[in-house]
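Let's do one together. I've listed all components of the complex below, 841 residues spread over two lines.
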Amino acid sequence: MSRNPVAASLSMLNRFSGSPLVHRLGLYKPAQLIARTAAREGIKAGVALQRQFKATQKLMRPERLDKVAKPSDLFDLNISEEQQMIRDMAQRFGREVLRPAAIKADHDRITPEGFEGQLAELGLAPFAVPEKLGGTATESSVVTGVLVAEDLSYGDLGLALAGLAPIGVANALVRWGSADQQAKYLPAFTGATPPKSSIAIAEPRPLFDPNELRTRATLDGDGFLLKGEKSLVPLCESADFLLVAASLIGKGPRMFIVEKGTAGVKITKEPALGARAAGLGRVALDDVRLPGHAILGEGVDACDFTELVDLSRIALCALSVGTAQAVLDYVITYCNERKAFGEPISNRQAVAFMIANIGIEVESMRLLTWRAASRADHGLPFHREAYLARVICAEKGMEIGTNGVQLLGGHGYIQDHPVERWYRDLMSASVMEGGLLL
Amino acid sequence: MQLEIPKKLSAVIEQAHMVATEVFRPISRKYDLAEHTYPVELDMLASLMDGMKEGDGLGGVGAGKLKREKAATRGSSVRNGTNMSTVLGLTELCWGDVGLALTIPRQGLGNSAIAAVANEEQLKRFKGAWAAMAITEPGAGSDSANIRMTAVRDGDHYILNGEKIFITAGERANVVVVWASLDLNVGRAAIKSFVVEKGTPGMNFVRLDHKLGIRASDTATILFNDCRVPKENLLGSPDIDVQQGFGGVMQTFDDTRPVVAAMALGVGRASLERTRELLKERGILGGYERTLFGSTAAEAELYRMEADLEAARLLTLKAAWMADNGIPNSKEASMAKAKAGRVANHVTLRCLQLCASVGATETELLEKWARDSKILDIFEGTQQIQLLIIARRLLNKSSAELR
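Okay, and this is what the predicted structure of the assembly comes out as:
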């Protein structure tokens, strides 16, 4: 059932203004602005929540987002006013909602109760969905996604991953999905409780390479037969549907939409080192029969798998950058306060230089990630840039994680301080493939 | 956000690259072997550079033209100005040859100092000069506030006494910008810079050093013995302002450090590019296809080096961009210098190793680049000095607290 635009806008405004969280975080003003923008731009399709994923409207063709037009071709590190506004919100959410929830979520290996609601109030998902499908997106927003991922991960990497994984699926549907797939799945993402979903690429195998998938898809009548195993899949147990990577015989890697409850899909918890709040799990696919329209995109060659992996790596890099920044800020405070031999330990070069190097490398990680994202937004090739960003974020992320603990000594090794969690989170992010994308 | 090089600066890059390819590379080995011989080929190049307008083509390449935009004069629109064009140009020149780039007539570090702090009259008087920079002394290197050279006012002159070492182009330049103290008891606030013209009585060349690398660029020792300099040759204010402290002289470094970082990027990239070519013959392609750990060890090494160089490049562009837009960039300038200096040195050394004996012999320039690159992690502030500056900024500490 479709609502008129005014009703949809009112509903959105209402959700923002009525949220105690929005008020508590002082987000009312920015939220108002965003709601107003959304209303002005016109929300054309109202969305009734449904988990059966039935198309409520028929799209003539898939909705795609425009590339970002360059205001000029000058080198410019400034972000737009809108990006700054979203950043302010994401930063406060990261600091004041995610960080305090991180310890318990890490321990429980699951997002805290009410997390989805809080996240929906933040209203990030509609930014990914095109206007015609009820969202507010008009142009590619990989850079904005990177900034948000950084800021949320500054609060907690696992919760950021849990929060952003479904948006990653929405992004993939917007980028490659067929008209029918978009109409079926995307409107739900603008609702009060967006579907839980994530991207499953990694497989439990040493030296895993996304271009050499063991998970196989074979043609089976009008559909496909999937067989294999996926690892480190966020929100796994609770997912309404997953985007699963499998190698289509004779074609190469392709993505498949696998809905909850499909026969042959077995989901188990996969206790892991870090990013635990994201509820990581393993997916066993035992001759899973899928309909022909389950392959992502219109036809078998619609989805650019290399680009998908690259956008996913950019997202994982952004998570690492946020957590690495958290390490830097934390060790600065700690080492300035901690005294040994009669003065702050940060007065010693052995300590201060480690911190300087963390500062340098966080910035290295950030700039490589930003450049890859910015090229993606502007429609430039970005495979090399995403690859190099991944290399540096994995290398330096590991280094920063271990030095963060080292700088706190024994105190860093116990869970009274967050650095041991960041140590684990940074390592997990450095080996993940998939999970989310921007 | 847009992190690509703007089209309007591609001319600077192309021309500098042309100089590197056509002028520097062919004579690179010649002057590495003939240390202390003046590269006469550069006279023509320098005239060419003089003939071009600032910021337009090669004129924007030299280190003499750095100008920091004042935040006050900054409009609402973003700038990519002389700091960025200098950084881009120097990268290309040093892709050609670091030593030769350092000894281009009239493009010395002293020219940067003059451009940054000279008044109108001085700018006019020293126009067209080739200015070297003399800071380091036998007893004071990184702790430049601790220099012992003195300047004593005597009527319309200052009398300079002391010894300066490691002066790039100290013998080739027409003038030397010299750091000296007006009062050794006051410390850094009393340090001023003086322009001393070649041939001034009391200014005596002692020797030229034999070095590990950058042999095309001469490094001189100069003794100042009751050397009388007109009082008009003092750069900046003659007053000792303890409040202002070292700011004036150190400000220059915020602008020149990204330039030295850029030089490191050039030689690092040269090594990596040549190594890629040589490894291609061994079937190492490096197309970013396999994961880092699925690649061969040599390929993975190339990827790591490329990622580090790219990080150094972006840090350098960021620091230059901040200077162009009037944003204080002391920390970022040091980050760029620290990262680029160590990465370039590492890259040139590792590339040499990857190429085995081909890398270590004089048939290739790889062994030369491996020697040249080391200086870039030392001069204009060593790696350790950059880390100190960065740490003090991050930790909000004074130089008394974090020494």
